[in-house]
Design a protein that fits this description.
Chain lengths: 266, 465
């Protein structure tokens, strides 16, 4: 008895059982429930009505498109701010220490709600209006580290002799950048985009706080419907969002394989 | 303006990294079309010199000219040189063709011309039909060929090669050496080749530059370097050699290993201490007979493929290495003979350690950053600056760093037949030379102590200041 028990613990595979249980209870079953609710009506009968409602409902559709738009803008701003930051951090001649990297990453360790409430307070203090601008600012502020870190990682790992080789072959600093450094940091850029875009599509707390609930994002719509007891419609909307994220991650996986480079995700 | 026949001129170039001097007043001229090898142990500054010529680093002092033009401050992309890197440095996001075409595209060469040149370069390195291969799918040797093609396709004035074959296996390396030599003849451009492999240097070069500790030790043809090494470092680094302490009795007569020998060297003076170098293949070994200059017993005999490497302990207690086609088993009595022409005599760089010191009181003197007890200080005034001399054999090395008055690292070991001659670098970067019978390894941390009686002091020459 004891023998078979110890053999059970000896097998490394068995160690994953607690996590597998957790995964089943809190990820797999809820996902199945979402699918179940999305395709049923209040009586539990199979139906496409929830999806039809979304298609017919211009307000929901508009929110969806608007959310994606905001997410794209946020991602772009993060990329434009994050790439130079990552480049400076990784650049050997600028001689910045690991401490600087930690300072850039530090906001990631502070709770997202605290950060956002602080942003609201900041806007109040500066007497700046809350709204769309504040929303984008808040999202960029919250998600910028997720852009910087993967890019920093790929730039850091890049073989510096490639830069020297490019210089040696006659490339001026600008050409070294867009012929060698930029293409080689693509895996980091892709991971950065994914890590910023995906959470921004589904965010709702930031939108609520920074726009005084004036601007609705898709995440807010989902939350409102669930909150108001419209579980089936809410589940259908969640499923649509999951689908979007799923497609996005498929696309990036392909990208990573094509680059044949172990990507930059932390 | 003075017209120069040299393609590369390096004038009084020094390079410091912080306090460390990596290159110390280097002067080097390279003729157009030459195959020059910069040879030295790792950390001697050879790669730094190459990087200064390529422009990846800038000189601390001095100037570099390429084709008569001063380029000391020119950034790498404007220099008429191309580099083959040790780890190839091929662009992983480009295929073979685009890697090779990289430089030509930057120069805005027309596409059909690029295609012709890339094909020609690929043919040159024996990689035809590999244009559209991914560089990651190539073997090390193939990657290095692509790297060479990428450099030569730009038709540079000078091709710089930084240990290009170091990462390849032996067989591959030999093949590539031959191909590089052929390539050099076909292209007619100047090659500057950095390596730590003395055999590679001897095989490939027109001129070898031997470097050590940031200084050029000797510049010469492979034959010169091998047959007439200028000092014991070069003799030890290039090929196998027996290096012994000797005394030049007068012209053409030198004494070492307890005997007097005829030699061909002259002009050293009379009764001068010298180093004697004898290549193992120049020693004749045979059964004891009247013609033997030295007699001894074989202590080991190792088969090396073409020859046997035999170590003979002479009756005077010196170890001599001999190479011969015949096997002389360990324990056998043998006679040895060296012809006068094969005895190479070199001036000793120094016959004892000399340091700058300061007398503290009549029994203590300060040098090497420490205070030493020295009875010799009695004749000097305290505070007086003096020259301190210590014989090599009087420096005592201790296993334990704490046991010595100061500590240092063993940096260079030379076997001199019956003892080792070590260079120990003290913690303050001063070289201390030591003769010892104990076996130490390169990089050992040692404690250094000196007995009071063995410290000699001399007045500092006034004009030396």
């Amino acid at each position: 008895m004891l023998n078979s028990l110890s053999r059970f613990f000896m097998r490394r595979k068995n160690w994953s059982i607690p996590y597998a249980l957790f995964l089943i209870v809190f990820v797999v079953i809820p996902l199945l429930l979402i699918v179940f609710y999305a395709f049923t009506d209040e009586e539990g009968m199979f139906t496409f009505a929830n999806f039809r409602k979304f298609m017919m409902h211009p307000e929901a559709m508009n929110t969806f498109i608007y959310s994606i738009g905001i997410a794209i803008i946020t991602t772009l701003v993060c990329l434009l701010l994050g790439y130079p930051a990552a480049y400076i951090l990784s650049h050997r001649s600028l001689n910045v220490s690991k401490t600087m990297v930690v300072l850039f990453i530090l906001p990631m360790w502070v709770n997202i709600l605290i950060r956002t409430l602080a942003t609201v307070a900041l806007f109040d203090f500066l007497k700046l209006p809350l709204g769309e601008g504040a929303l984008v600012f808040g999202m960029v502020y919250n998600f910028l580290p997720f852009m910087i870190y993967p890019i920093y990682n790929t730039l850091q790992k890049m073989d510096y002799s490639l830069v020297e080789a490019a210089q040696d072959l006659g490339a001026n600093p600008l050409k070294v950048f867009y012929k060698v450094i930029l293409p080689l940091s693509m895996p980091g850029i892709v991971s950065g985009i994914v890590m910023v875009f995906m959470p921004t599509v589904s965010t709702f707390a930031i939108a609520e706080l920074l726009t005084m609930n004036n601007i609705k994002l898709f995440g807010t719509t989902v939350q409102e419907n669930i909150y108001n007891g419209m579980w089936n419609y809410g589940a259908a909307l969640s499923l649509i969002m999951l689908l979007l994220i799923g497609i996005m991650s498929l696309f990036t996986n392909e990208e990573d394989n094509a680059q044949n480079e172990s990507g930059g995700v932390i | 303006m003075q017209q120069s026949s040299y393609i590369i001129e390096v004038h009084n170039v020094s390079k410091h990294f912080g306090d460390k001097t990596v290159l110390d007043n280097i002067n080097l001229n390279v003729k157009k079309g030459e195959f020059v090898t910069i040879l030295g142990p790792s950390g001697c500054g050879k790669t730094t010199l190459l990087r200064l010529i390529a422009g990846f680093q800038t000189t601390s002092e001095g100037e570099i000219r390429i084709a008569g033009k001063e380029i000391t401050q020119t950034p790498p992309h404007l220099r008429p040189v191309n580099t083959v890197f040790q780890k190839y440095a091929l662009f992983p996001h480009l295929n073979v063709y685009d890697n090779i075409a990289f430089g030509l595209k930057l120069k805005k060469v027309a596409a059909p011309v690029i295609e012709k040149k890339v094909k020609a370069a690929l043919k040159m390195v024996g990689m035809t039909d590999y244009e559209y291969r991914d560089v990651d799918s190539l073997s090390g040797g193939q990657q290095q060929r692509v790297a060479i093609a990428r450099a030569i396709v730009n038709e540079p004035e000078v091709l710089l090669l930084d240990e290009p074959l170091a990462a390849l296996d032996l067989k591959m390396r030999k093949d590539m050496q031959m191909e590089l030599k052929e390539m050099h003849q076909k292209l007619g451009i100047t090659f500057i080749y950095v390596t730590h492999d003395q055999e590679e240097a001897l095989t490939l070069s027109d001129t070898i530059v031997v470097m050590s500790e940031g200084k050029i030790q000797q510049i010469g043809t492979p034959m010169d370097i091998y047959n007439e090494p200028i000092n014991s470092f070069v003799a030890d680094f290039i090929g196998e050699s027996n290096i012994l302490n000797g005394i030049m009795i007068h012209d053409k007569k030198v004494s070492f290993a307890g005997h007097e020998f005829e030699c061909v060297d002259k002009g050293f003076g009379e009764n001068v201490e010298v180093d004697v170098v004898i290549r193992p293949e120049d020693v004749y070994i045979f059964d004891p007979s009247d013609v033997a200059q030295l007699t001894g017993v074989v202590t080991s005999c190792i088969f090396k493929g073409v020859h046997y490497e035999i170590v003979v302990q002479t009756s005077e207690g010196y170890e001599i290495m001999v190479q011969d086609y015949h096997c002389f088993e360990a324990g056998r009595n043998v006679g040895l003979l060296v012809k006068p022409f094969d005895i190479h005599v070199m001036k000793k760089e120094r016959s004892c350690n000399t340091f700058e010191g300061k007398v503290i009181d009549d029994s203590h003197v300060e040098f090497l950053g420490c205070s030493f007890e020295a009875p010799a200080a009695a004749g000097f005034e305290s505070g007086e600056k003096v020259v301190v001399e210590v014989d090599f054999k009087d420096i005592i090395l201790q296993d334990n760093e704490e046991d010595g008055e100061l500590s240092g690292d063993v940096n260079f070991i030379l076997y001199k037949g019956d003892h080792y001659h070590l260079t120990v670098v003290s913690d303050w970067g001063v070289d201390i030379f030591v003769d010892t019978n104990d076996v130490w390894d390169n990089g050992d941390c040692v404690g250094i102590s000196i007995l009071p009686e063995s410290i000699r002091l001399k007045k500092l020459q006034e004009d030396a200041e």
